[in-house]
Amino acid sequence: xxxxxxxxxxxxxxxxxxxxxxxxxxxxxxxxxxxxxxxxxxxxxxxxxxxxxxxxxxxxxxxxxxxxxxxxxxxxxxxxxxxxxxxxxxxxxxxxxxxxxxxxxxxxxxxxxxxxxxxxxxxxxxx
Length: 127
Hints:
Blueprint: E1 22-23, E2 33-35, E3 37-39, E4 48-50, E5 53-60, E6 68-70, E7 73-80, E8 88-90, E9 93-100, E10 124-126
Parallel strand pairs: 1-3, 2-5, 3-5, 4-6, 5-7, 6-8, 7-9, 9-10
């Protein structure tokens, strides 16, 4: 009898978030760099955003329907209940991001780098 080796699956790393957050602005500017911010449904997402960087942030119930986010960089970010249907995340770099209860119907992650499943380097968690 031969023993079959099982491939051990690595659990994705969870985002590393701070204990407290500051409130995010009500709109996004291209080239903005956000650290330790929480955004809610009041956030106005323009149709096109270039080079947004988010580190240790949370988006809750944000409507990003049909938005184009070019050059998005996310590290240690949680998206909760957000709507990304029809959104284009072109050239996104996503590390330890978690999408919880988000709508992603028709979302396109084109040219995305480091947007991987379970690994120790980067993780995209869809829950």
